[in-house]
Amino acid sequence: xxxxxxxxxxxxxxxxxxxxxxxxxxxxxxxxxxxxxxxxxxxxxxxxxxxxxxxxxxxxxxxxxxxxxxxxxxxxxxxxxxxxxxxxxxxxxxxxxxxxxxxxxxxxxxxxxxxxxxxxxxxxxxxxxxxxxxxxxxxxxxxxxxxxxxxxxxxxxxxxxxxxxxxxxxxxxxxxxxxxxxxxxxxxxxxxxxxxxxxxxxxxxxxxxxxxxxxxxxxxxxxxxxxxxxxxxxxxxxxxxxxxxxxxxxxxxxxxxxxxxxxxxxxxxxxxxxxxxxxxxxxxxxxxxxxxxxxxxxxxxxxxxxxxxxxxxxxxxxxxxxxxxxxxxxxxxxxxxxxxxxxxxxxxxxxxxxx
Length: 355
Hints:
Among the domains are: 43-52 and 279-351, conserved putative lor/sdh protein from methanococcus maripaludis s2 fold; 58-66 and 196-278, Elongation Factor Tu (Ef-tu), domain 3, CATH 2.40.30.170; 102-156, Helix Hairpins (Orthogonal Bundle). It contains three helices and 21 strands. It has helices spanning 2-18, 103-127, 133-156, and strands spanning 27-29, 35-37, 42-48, 51-72, 78-83, 90-91, 96-100, 158-160, 165-170, 177-178, 192-207, 219-223, 232-239, 249-256, 268-284, 289-290, 297-303, 306-318, 321-325, 334-338, 349-351.
């Protein structure tokens, strides 16, 4: 009886060792006799890549600057007699802004009148041959120099507005001495600064690949964060002729109308320029993944039942769609748009049929 019981126990143990348990599921034996895992394909959905026509627009950030800016100062140091404007005053072209001391100017005018009297007297004698040519040439030279000196002092004892604008800086008061030392933010010496804010301009650095496409008179759109949803029209005023070798970019100037005075120099802005329409690969934005801790973007393609990981560059966004750029992408590729979050490069996938 004891022998029969032992025999039954040994039989049950042997049978238990032969039956597949949970740890033996999805296993088989490879050529070396070792267990090998049977891979369960990941279920995914795909779309076929096709190019579509999109409006190509480039956008760059910049800051608004005055269309013109002038730092006004006389040609030589001297006492300031009177300043007629304050910061923020709007002035018209030709308006008198400041008056310098006129003592030297008055002296030069008196000297000119004296020389002019002698010149007119000798000019009459010269016409009848009463003086030598040398005497006449000498007095004429003195007269010309005195007259030029008066004109020079007249221009430099008064400061006038060179264009319509706004006074943006005042650095002296009435009666002070203008020293000629640099005192502005740009390192120039000035009594007053004036800026033109209608129009304004934006200086933009653009990638060199667009150089053949950018030209003067192109339309541009300018937006500022403080005016959400509002677009200010502009146009390309100037294209610089050289490429910066350090940044591989070139510079353009965009002129912006500011008739309602909403904009001011120094404001942050974004400048957009339309480059026309072209064909591009646009896909659902959910299909594009981002590598954690970096700016690298990638997608998965389905190729022969396996997932292929491919790094891409993000282009323009269109609501829930995004343009993707890669030299390895072409029309007809099968892009995985669902289930890609679980994938790794080379893993087996099975394509689910659309419901």
